[in-house]
Amino acid sequence: MSERENILGRIREALQVKAPQPGAHGDESASAPAEPAVSHARDWLPAVGPTPAEQFELFAKNCADLKAEFQLLSSRDALKAALVQLRDLEKWRQAASHDGELSQFACRALGLPTLFTDRGYDVQALEKCDVGVTECDALVAQTGGVVVTSRSTGGRALSVLPPHHVVVARREQLVADLPAAFAWLQQKYAPDFPSMISFITGPSRTGDIERIMVLGAHGPKKLTILCV
Amino acid sequence: MGTSVSEFKARATEKSGDLRHRQFIRTALRGYESARDRRKHAFQSWESARTAAAATKWQAVNHLDEHLIALTGKLEARGTKVHWASTAAQAREIITQILRDKNARSVIKSKSMTSEEIHLNHALEAAGFVVVESDLGEFIVQLRHETPYHIVFPSMHLQRGEIRELFQRELGNAPSDTPEDLTMVARRVMRQKYLQAEVGFTGANFAIAETGMISITENEGNSRLTSALPKTMVTLLGIEKVLPRFADLALFLPMLATAGAGQPMTCYNTMYSGPRQPGEPDGPDEWHVVLLDNRRTELLADAEQRDALHCIRCGACLNVCPIFRNVGGHTYGTTYSGPVGSVITPHLRGLQEWKHLSNASSLCGACTEACPVKIDLHHHLLQNRRNAATAKPAALERLAYRALGVVAGDPKFWWLAKKIGWLAQPLHAVVEGTALDPAKAWTKTRDLPPMPKESFKDWWRNRK
């Protein structure tokens, strides 16, 4: 018999005895939990206002708490200006990005030599890039998070290997909360999900030395989100 | 037998007397506590979220066979190789063989307590592979040849000066003792290791039955790199980590971050559903997921304590535990320390040898209250005590209580016992503190109150 059958067999044997309900402290008369209502998670998680204005305000506040930079821009021209300003301020010389209408617009605005990761790339070359520019699948107001995937945003490494990650997003990509983000991913991809989906909430960090926060532990030291 | 208990007692005595250690750990955990409380209050209803999380985990664990079949079916359908390991030895053998097949020399690891549980690093090093822990805290304890102090904060017992000395000695580089500089030293060292490693190894926080995914939670981005750069990826998964639905993560990810580290959301929460897929530019060509039982099914068979398998390894119960705060993480001598470790270790490694952990508890219930998935932790500690006593009655203790029952049940015997005690107590001073002291366990840390010459009863009778 294979180990798979051994393990499943032991599980089935163990489950012949019913377990008491959670939190019942052995009181067997406690009623069975209704179908776990994660669909109600929205009512328990941190509150999010109903209007886009409130949601952008919350997103901005969360980004500030996370030490991520967020700018809500009024036009493509403003986006271009913001990118140019960042490029000059940080003296970027080499960028990396991926195919995409908005990401390509951003790369043209930067006007730097750009490594596109879509059709394979040299890891050492990507490691030497000053900035990784990606689009995203969603912005999450509730957490200040950005959702990227291996299919829609240039693979797995682009958003973590360069020291600065710039996300270019469209206003309509903002979702209110985590349940909405998961519902959106399911709607967009199921059953054929990208092999990696990542919720990025602030720049890479660690508190492993005396609980003092240091940014850029392994991933980007800086995360900039430009929304147009 | 007996070694783990005597070691526990010796280390606990030493650590609880180390005031510097106590102060340092308490300060760290108090900081964590206030951050956690702030984040809990941001929830509209933390209590409802806990109830729902417990119910979801209950459903997952009580239909574990169905969920594992769904999970592995989906994983395999997208090209992931699934392995099943009943024991730690089997898991080590499977992983070693994967590395051999790939002709790997080095493996880069992101944080995994399950790999600590099966002593994977030791096995891989013995087989000739170079193993690099990439999580900063794990990297530090690996350099010190230590086990993690805490399941979430592995190096929380070390001060910056100690880490600087360590880096100077082991890496030949430590410009200062600021956490910023030390972190950057580790970052630079690790970047090169990432580019060299043939195999990336990860643990797992959740597995999703519905969509066939593994979810990994981290702050540093090391796990993201581990799953992006090496050509082969290996993930070790305890079978209890499964959740039924993709949407469950919308609740569990913020709860894990809040309970575990007082964060609204951990920096990277990443769901993997396969190796590199057609049309994707990077990621491993091969992904192996190793499912580990290692006596989890024995815990599952104990219906009374089955909810201990709900544990999401957030560390909240360690952080609030008065025992953990005083004796520290290494004292336990187990992979999983603190209240949850005391509950599950007897199941995973033997009740008689590890029953003492269930006695190292004030039964205050702080752990049960802190647990985001409502594991009945302090009741389980009591149940372990009961089970241990039933399986192997303490004959001497039982005899002593029976004798006490006889003496206390008869006024004449009781009167005699008091008189003997009063007469014998002055003699106690001669042996106090020595090996001959019969009350040594008491007098080591406390005064023995003097026996009164006259009992209350005598005084009452004689007062006129």
Features:
heterodimer; A: 228 residues; alpha/beta; Rossmann fold; 20% strand; B: 464 residues; six-stranded parallel beta sheet; four-stranded mixed beta sheet; 10 strands
What does this structure look like?
The complex is a heterodimer of chains A (228) and B (464). By secondary structure, chain A is α/β, with parallel strands linked by helices. Chain A has one domain: NagB/RpiA/CoA transferase-like (Rossmann fold), CATH 3.40.50.10420. Chain A is built from seven helices and twelve strands. Chain A has helices at residues 3-14, 41-44, 52-66, 76-90, 101-110, 123-127, 178-189; strands at 69-72, 95-97, 114-116, 131-134, 138-140, 145-149, 164-169, 174-175, 196-200, 205-206, 214-215, 222-227. Chain A has a six-stranded parallel β-sheet with strand order 1-12-7-4-2-3, sandwiched between helices. Chain A has a four-stranded mixed β-sheet with strand order 8-5-6-9. In chain A, helix 4 crosses helix 5. Chain A starts with a helix and ends with a strand. With 464 residues, chain B is α/β, with parallel strands linked by helices. Chain B folds into three domains: 1-42 and 310-392, no CATH class; 60-294, NagB/RpiA/CoA transferase-like (Rossmann fold, 3-Layer(aba) Sandwich), CATH 3.40.50; 400-462, no CATH class. Chain B contains 24 helices and ten strands. Chain B has helices at 3-16, 19-42, 46-62, 64-77, 88-101, 113-117, 120-126, 136-143, 160-171, 179-196, 222-226, 249-261, 296-301, 316-320, 322-327, 338-349, 351-354, 356-359, 366-370, 377-391, 395-409, 411-431, 440-443, 456-462, and strands at residues 81-85, 106-109, 130-133, 199-202, 206-208, 213-218, 232-238, 242-243, 268-272, 286-292. In chain B, strands 1-10-7-4-2-3 form a six-stranded parallel β-sheet, with helices on both faces. In chain B, helix 16 (338-349) runs parallel beside helix 20. The longest helix of chain B has 24 residues, at 19-42. Chain B is elongated and about 100 Å long. The chains are: A alpha/beta (228), B alpha/beta (464). At the A-B interface, helix 1, helix 2, helix 6, helix 7 and strand 9 of A face helix 2, helix 3, helix 4, helix 8 and helix 10 of B.
